[in-house]
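Protocol step 4 of 5: obtain the predicted structure for the target chain.
Materials: sequence only (see below). No template structures provided, no constraints applied. The aim of this step is simply to have a reference model before the mutagenesis design in step 5. Sequence pasted as it appears in the construct record:
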Amino acid sequence: MKKIVLIFLIIPFAGFTGLKLIYPSTSNLLEVRTDPWPINLQRIIDRRDTSFALEFRDQQVVSGIVLDTLPFKNLEQLRYLEQGLSALKKGHNGDIATYQDYSIKRTEVIKKDSIWYMLRGAGGLTNFQQPEADKLISFIRGL
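Step 4 output (structure tokens):
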């Protein structure tokens, strides 16, 4: 009888742990920019794999809110983003870092005297300034 009671106590906890392993866990690592045009760096833990994603609001769609996600399979691919931003920071207006799934273009606004970047993913586009790029660069270097 004690064994049956013990089994009924253990089974719910075992089932709960099994569910945690099935569904991936997503957490925000860095909020690069807040609303109305948010950019967030996320970590996704799925069983034994850890991947990353850059979630941003698509600036091509003004009439609604469309969030796009740029996935990175591992930390090495995320470091390519950091290397591209670092290279563009030292580059010139119009320089482009092109990758398989996305591209980053450096643009300068003459009137405001600041550096802007245009990130184009598979389906979305967002712009951000040098201070936001610096946040991404320093955070990724720290990982």
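Step 4 remarks: The domain at 25-142 is CATH 3.30.2450 (Secreted effector protein pipB2 fold). The chain has a mean pLDDT of 82.
Proceed to step 5.
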